[in-house]
Amino acid sequence: MTFQEIKLYQTGTFVVGNRLLDPQQRSVQARTGRSNSLTSGHRACQGCGEALGARYVLDAAMRATDGRLVAVNSTGCLEVFSTPYPESSWQLPWLHSLFGNGPAVASGVAAALRASGRDDIRVIGQAGDGGTVDIGFGTLSGMFERNDDVLFVCYDNEGYMNTGVQRSGATPPGAATNTTKVLGHHPGNAFGQGKSVPLIAMAHEIPYVATATVAELRDLEHKVEKAMTFRGARYLHVFVPCPLGWGAASADTIKLARLAKETGIFPVFEAEGGQVTEVSRIRRQVPVEDYLRPQRRYAHLFGDNPRPDVVARIQAGADRNIARFGLLPEGDA
Amino acid sequence: MDKPFAITLDVGSSRANKTGSWRTERAVYIDRLSPCSDGCPAGEDVQGWLYEAEEGGDGYERAWRRIMEDNPFPAVMGRVCYHPCETACNRAQLDEAVGINSVERFVGDEAIRRGWQVSVPVPSSGTRVLVVGAGPSGLSAAYHLALRGHAVTIKEAGPMAGGMMRFGIPRYRLPRDVLDAEVQRILDLGVTLELDTKVTDLDAVRGDYDAVFLAVGAQLGKRAYIPAGSAAHVLDAVEMLRDLEAGEKPLLGRRVAVYGGGNTAMDAARSARRLGASEAVVVYRRTRDRMPAHPSEVAEAEDEGVLFSWLTTIKQVDSGRLVVERMELDDDGFPRPTGELDELEADSLVLALGQDTDLSLLDGVPGLVVEDGVVAVGPDLMTGCPGVFAGGDMVPHERSVTVAIGHGKRAARHIDAWLSGAAPEPVVRPELATFDTLNTWYYSDAPRAHRPLLERARRESTFDEVVLGHDESTALLEARRCMSCGSCFGCDNCYGVCPDNAVIKLDRPGRAAYLIDLDYCKGCGLCVAECPSGAISMVPEKI
Ligand SMILES: Cc1cc2nc3c(=O)[nH]c(=O)nc-3n(C[C@H](O)[C@H](O)[C@H](O)COP(=O)(O)OP(=O)(O)OC[C@H]3O[C@@H](n4cnc5c(N)ncnc54)[C@H](O)[C@@H]3O)c2cc1C
Ligand SMILES: Cc1ncc(C[n+]2csc(CCOP(=O)(O)OP(=O)(O)O)c2C)c(N)n1
Ligand code: SF4
Ligand SMILES: [Mg+2]
User: How much is the pTM?
Assistant: First the structure.
């Protein structure tokens, strides 16, 4: 954790606010004046992690930039549920072009602003994991390589959700989607090599890379705020559970994000210039099973023909993350 | 049409789209009953006053006033209450129970230090109520009756008010200036206290009053038949403690044996040590874990050098020695004699075998029923004689100061209703805020602060208070360990976690801090799941 820990005997760092805190210490989301960049009436599913994550990120960015912000959005749920013509849920200047070109359009907007002398206006590009890890990957890498002044945010719900839950390059091993069915001896998504765009972004040695989840608001807001202190290409990868695509209860969205971090499945860290500078350590470690069980996309691992071997491989992956990033709680490491 | 290229409709906000219509369940703010409040025999809203106290500053006075709504003895409570609230506290399942008792003491002491007062909020009712006995139960009833505008007279047999709070509980646990201050505050409401006025014939005096509350306690030490030599020195614990309070120094000798395993036995043994006994041994027929005395009192007694002889009964008392028999527990946990005899040196024997009630004043009161030496009462605490109520140690219930105070409050409520001929206002008991209704992820790791104790040397020779109070900052931290089970404490989680911005933050102080915007609440349940204190619930919509 790089942000100032809230020392308050009751609820400190993990809650959104607390009436006992002085207003300076409250999160952006605790303020009645937050910009609600993504406002009510959007058509995201009940309990959508992506809708929540987008508001968290953009409200923090709006505050950090005093409202001088443009967002560019790739195709995906976030775009579709927010802007059925002629309505819009966006309370900031917002552009959509295509599924694959979000990073390129964001680069273009940044270039146009620079050309018109408006360096005060900052640019955010945003996309789902499909638009980032798969089809948008080439233009994203270009944006990194040129060090364009854009914060690109990936809302990772681990699949193509908008088109009905297909596999993406970010779909985890073992998970069932409509293109990785529960069939044959290796049900669900295969164990591939994985594709960590945060690590790929770091390989570009861009100024700032971070991961976050919707379960740790203060950490996420801090990272957005920090990203806005840099110029050049920045990347934020936000873990956003999808109740529909994962077959999870709508009320479990934040719990699942918390468990992803507490199991080591999703490492939460920050990097500057290609070097990891901070990790968010596990607070109460739990086995991956606690995370997998509430999700129907993993139901085949536990049903009548349980697959402890697959669960063990997923656990091994989490353990690798824990070792690689040093995620164990202080004292246990 | 004057629209930009390729635009045929006016751009509008999605707020026109009332997604609340998707809902099959709605989120509703609720108040569940916290286990601490549920467990308080005096009916204090513990979570409610901790909520005020955790704000610090003016919050302490608000907390005190919340306690005073139920219990006029916060500073006494913060010392002698056996705090069943802490036993019930959910936080015990996380790390350690909230030190509720220590916060109550801090708040109570602040009130005395700063002279906070209460006043009667209603005009005089013109009715006269007699209270017999100025122990905690009688004083509590008098307080609550006075607050309801009734003229209260307390007739007390003893020379001072307080009952067992003064003539039982020793000073090292309850300093008398604290007791005096809290009693005086009750009298200041206009309650008439007649001291040295023993009621010997209730039937003769009750006609002068519209209603009566009996709270004469249990003053008579129980006797056990133990063969004793003529030179044997046997005393009764309650008598000994009463004499001590009256300024007489009981003659105990160097080695004192105390017979019994309750709190009175602990107080007698610890007082004996302070009076100069080099050896004080508690003789009890069962084992330590079966002692009725509160564990903290046993621990403090041990700490002061009090010795214990478990599984032991006394067969005979002689001058300077006791004959004792070893016991063993049978399968049901009952002590059984083994026939194995032993000797114990003791200059005196103090009997602490429980107390009986002297009910002679009730002779001739029509309808009144006495069972097992105590007065039978209904749930409204009325005896078989209409208009005569009773509470505290003289009715069948667990005996403690807190229970007695709770009875006083409950009786006052029912007396008030009985006098006006109306049904008493119902007591609402919401569902319990059990541990599984909480989301404890959100609470900070916060170790409990324990109160410091007076140094040992001074505990062995003086009656100075043993358990010391918290300073302000420690009391505040302890109050803030409270998880606010079942009630909103304004953490903003619901406001933050709603993906639909359907929680409206009213930005006003107090508990109704948020509203659900039903135009947009899709009923996802995230606010319910992420509410730390279980203060929101999902309710099915009628579809
Ligand atoms: C040594 C000892 C230690 C204790 N420690 C604790 C403790 O730490 N915590 C706790 O919660 N409880 C403790 N208790 C129990 C607690 O003190 C009693 O349960 C409580 O005081 C009962 O309150 P009461 O008002 O019913 O009776 P009492 O406190 O006994 O008061 C009754 C009053 O009525 C008066 N009275 C009696 N007869 C008449 C009459 N005929 N006319 C007029 N007045 C009369 C008496 O003089 C007395 O003042 C202790 C008890 C003892 C004996
Ligand atoms: C070139 C192209 N191919 C396919 C699509 C159809 N399409 C729209 S969104 C989407 C998937 C989006 O997935 P992701 O980026 O992960 O966003 P999510 O909906 O999961 O938030 C697809 C395949 C498209 N719009 N354009
Ligand atoms: S944590 Fe607070 S509200 Fe919950 S039981 Fe303990 S004292 Fe009561
Ligand atoms: Mg996706």
Answer: 0.94
